[in-house]
Design a protein that fits this description.
Elements (H helix, E strand, L loop, with lengths): L13 E5 L2 E4 L4 E4 L2 H4 L8 H13 L10 H14 L5 E5 L2 H16 L3 E5 L8 H5 L9 H4 L3 E4 L4 H8 L4 E6 L13 H13 L3 E5 L23 E4 L10 E5 L18 H16 L2 H16 L5 E7 L2 E6 L4 H9 L3 E2 L8 E4 L7 H18 L1
Helix pairs in contact: 2-9, 3-9, 7-8, 10-12
């Protein structure tokens, strides 16, 4: 049997990893500046994380949501305390797409409306409603296109208001900082305007924190840079440091009832153990504050790279934009310099999403490597 060929793959196979370093099958060492799409939050194979998962597996790894699971309550308590979102309620699932799918579905249940507003260059996942709200026609199948979604330019409150006044919009969904789209971010006034308009028009404001959550931007959630309170917050990626877990936080005015949402694997014992370990390490090692400081250091150093057009992002959710495509640069970085980086819909953007544990000397090494690659290309 062959694998279904949907991924263009680099000719590298990581077989071991620790903190910000991975090793391939030949023992070659690579610096991880990408964390597997921002998934590795507390570093590869963190000792506390490994111990927590192993210990949990010795007891019970899985049972369904038909029974009590006190780990879910422990997770909710820790998450509420560390994020500052104690007043929200938690629903657990298994991925970011599933989180956004449930967020959109819940919004529609809540207000009885069906249309969605999303934004240009946004990415929310590959499942039915989530992909329909994603600005990429190439990945939207005809069955997904039946969803009623309008894609608006980010930053134009007048256009948002005009759509909301039609009275049929169940949700506005937006990333605090766009991930796949290329690290663009709306102004605080726009986010605050969205909050006001959605409240006035009985529409749910969904903040997609799948990539930006769990400390990556220098605050627990990216929306916290803008002083707003969303109705629903979706999360995944860094939540489990590699273990599949996602979830949504739901404001208290949205009522729950039996059967409204459901999942088989969401909130299982191993997933909860993984997320609890992540929260423990984020707090104990002050990684959220460190992400903000390290991000500032990165920005300062990256400004020295020749040919940089623009630096984007916050914390350790960063982008370096050049005047031409970075595809060949990424190949040189991985094959010649032994460094993982990411791309984006913006082909000129080098996406940087390292573990939050990355050190300044590792950033220095990366900046020097990029300078060398840029100089070689010139």
């Amino acid at each position: 049997m062959k694998l279904f060929d949907v991924y263009p793959l680099y000719n590298v196979e990581p077989v071991k990893a620790e903190d910000c370093t991975v090793w391939d099958e030949e023992g070659k060492e690579y610096l991880d500046l990408y964390g597997g799409h921002a998934v590795i939050s507390i570093g590869h194979s963190h000792p506390h994380y490994v111990h927590k998962l192993k210990s949990q597996l010795d007891n019970i790894g899985f049972y369904s949501n038909a029974v009590q699971n006190s780990l879910q309550k422990e997770l909710a308590d820790k998450l509420g305390a560390l994020s500052g979102c104690d007043e929200y309620e938690l629903f657990l699932c298994s991925s970011g797409a599933e989180a956004n799918e449930n967020a959109l579905k819940l919004a529609s249940f809540h207000n009885g409306k069906q249309r969605v507003i999303a934004f240009q260059n946004g990415f929310h996942g590959r499942t039915s409603a989530a992909v329909a709200a994603t600005d990429n026609k190439a990945i939207i199948a005809p069955i997904n296109a039946q969803q009623e979604v309008i894609i608006l330019p980010m930053g134009d409150l007048d256009l948002v208001e005009a759509e909301l006044k039609k009275g049929d919009v169940c949700a506005v969904i937006i990333e605090p900082i766009q991930g796949v789209g290329g690290l663009d971010e709306a102004e605080t006034a726009f986010f605050q305007g969205l909050e006001k308009l959605t409240k006035e028009n009985d529409t749910c404001l969904i903040l997609d924190e799948v990539q930006s959550g769990f400390g990556r931007t220098g605050k627990f959630f990216g929306f916290q840079h803008h002083g707003i309170q969303p109705d629903i917050i979706s999360m995944a990626k860094g939540m489990g440091n590699g273990f599949p877990i996602g979830g949504i936080l739901i404001a208290p005015h949205i009522e729950s009832k039996y059967g409204l949402l459901g999942t088989t694997f969401g909130g299982n014992h191993l997933a909860c153990a993984a997320c609890i370990a992540v929260l423990d390490v984020l707090e104990k090692e002050s990684l959220i504050g460190k992400a903000a400081i390290t991000g500032e250091y990165f920005m300062e150093k990256a400004s020295e790279i020749p040919g940089v057009v623009r630096l984007k992002g916050r914390g350790l959710m960063l982008g370096i934009e050049f005047g031409e495509p970075v595809g060949e640069m990424r190949k040189q970085l991985i094959y010649d310099k032994k460094m993982f980086t990411g791309g984006a819909k913006n082909k000129n953007l080098l996406r940087i999403l390292p573990p939050l544990t990355i050190q300044t000397d590792q950033i220095d090494a990366f900046i020097e490597a990029v300078k060398e690659v840029v100089t070689e290309e010139v």
